[in-house]
Amino acid sequence: MKKTILELKGLKVYYPVQKGILGKKEYVKAVDNVELDIIEGEVFGIVGESGCGKSTLGKAISKLINVTDGKMIFDGNDISHYTRYQMREIRKSMQMIFQDPYASLNPRMSIREIIAEPLRVHGIAKTKEDIDKKVISLLQKVGLDAYHAARYPHEFSGGQRQRIGIARALAVNPKLIIADEPVSALDVSIQSQVLNLMNDLKKELNLTYIFVAHDLSVVEHISDRVGVMYLGNFVEVADKNSLYENPLHPYTKALLSAVPIPNPRVKKERIILEGSIPSALNPPTGCKFHTRCPKCMEICKNVAPEKKVISESHYVYCHLYDEK
Amino acid sequence: MSENKAKNVLEIKNMHTYFFTDNGIVKSVDGVDITLKEGSTLGIVGESGSGKSVTALSIMNLLMDTKGKVVQGEIIFDGKDIVKINNEEKRKLRGSQIAMIFQEPMTSLNPVLKIGDQITESILLHTKASKAEAKAKAIDMLNKIGIPRAERIINEYPFQLSGGMRQRIMIAMALVCNPKILIADEPTTALDVTIQAQILELMKELKDMIGTSIIFITHDLGVVAEICDEVVVMYCGRVVESGDVYSIFENTKHPYTKGLLASIPKLGEHIERLESIPGNVPNPKHMPIGCKFAPRCKEAISICTEKEPDFFEYPDGHRSRCWLCKKEYGGEL
After folding, report:
1. Nearest CA to CA, how far is B259 from chain A (Å)?
2. Are the Cβ atoms of B280 and A160 closer than 8 angstroms?
3. Is-above-0.80 flag for pTM?
4. Which DSSP letter does residue A284 get?
5. For A270-314, what is each residue's pLDDT tens digit?
6. I need a labelling partner for A40 at 20 to 30 A (CA). Which of A52, A76, A265, B136 fits?
7. In terms of DSSP bridges, do strands B24-37 and B8-21 run parallel, antiparallel, or are they unpaired?
8. CA A44, A271, A212 angle in degrees (round to 5)?
């Protein structure tokens, strides 16, 4: 039986923007009415272009930003309106790995202090011996050595820093890890080391990942299921194989066709999209993708498409798949 | 290489660019040979710290405000060694004969100048055109690169444009004087894939239209396969492998290039584990003796850590700086 670990129901995150002092308050609808289930033990990849709301969604799930509306059911509890104090308990089972390994570690703390902090805050290890033992075992788990504990972040390379970030996230034994572009700041040779590490840890510790990234090849490699976002909402969600082999939404098709293939003999048929992503302040009416869609129909301009279930693990939001 | 008749527009011979910092000398580029053929696109691939951007800045002579200097070697352009010419002559080349576009279109445009003024600046500087002629040329260029309503855009400011549009403007600025060489330093890295596809398509079209030779610096091997004719792979300030794009991808010789190609996840390929190159790029202040890649190399033999290999050149012009390639052909180690 598959267990749902996280359920999002009509999740909305709006950022208020005010034009002038007396101006009307407007909202950037960064995440708009997202419905999603995350199954325990899976890797769910979220892809999309900048400004599609993928990072905001990741931050909203870990409540680093407030949810405007909707429900967020984690492990049976609706955490969407939990206070900071209530969230502290939840964060033991939900941790985040950030994009920039240079900015997400405090430069004035030693590696030992960085990893010990969550242990202390959550009362997982209390005595000095306990903490030291735990820190060393975490460092070894992510492929670093015990002597690294005494060093400071500037002494490490980008890949090593990302390992430290992972060790910090693992310190509290979380169930769910939200990784926001964890490898995009790393060089390719280092990127594969970190991806392999994340894969190993997932199996070893039975983790669930929400993996946010813009690189479609990386997401295909690590994910079990993938959701494609555009302007604040998913346009297509499917298991990895059906999404990459049989993409249905015109946006997914265009994204996949745009990925450069490291083989000089492959000459791909490109679907070149016109223009760039519209502003989330004034999203287009109807289907939000209709302004760039090569297959736009009359109905797309006015009516937002409903969720169309294509198969058990594949659904899409597009009028092309309406029953005639 | 003699079968290829194309003229060389740029020849870099044994170039060394060092940075004289307070903590000692950093040899960012340490003996690089690169040849750019007329009308071709040459890709320089490498990880951060490999010296690919410093190579570009050395060609453009944009190091004078840093602690960096080309200390040895030649850069032959148009029959002249452009390392040795004076600043006045260098300034004449820059922008008109050799132009450059940068990674961050957001930061490399001047935020307080109108788009039109930024494009016409190099026309007015390098040609005798009047202001009106320059403006007409700028509009013409914008039309060429597919920017809608060019007449209005020239009166707008960079913040009014999207990232992809700004990169198009950068390309327009670089190409407006019909340079012989365009150096593009990670021009699509900051862009989304759909926008990247637009820009790569545009660069291919413009190359044929204007006849510019391109040096394309990137870390993305997919982009290299897409746009480049020749490839140079750099590691720790040296070229480790070079050749035409097909032989680099299909007949890879150097273990570093092999490792890079195996490290990237590929669309449609389902494998459990990715190959990876163990370890990290060495600290430039403590370079290993012998082959710079030996400490991370899976195929390293004893000589690799003792003596640095020279280039081994295959009959098709493919070169690899590796002892194993020499051994493969029965050469004395």
Report:
1. 7
2. yes
3. yes
4. P
5. 888 877 788 888 889 999 999 999 999 999 999 999 999 999 999
6. A52
7. antiparallel
8. 20
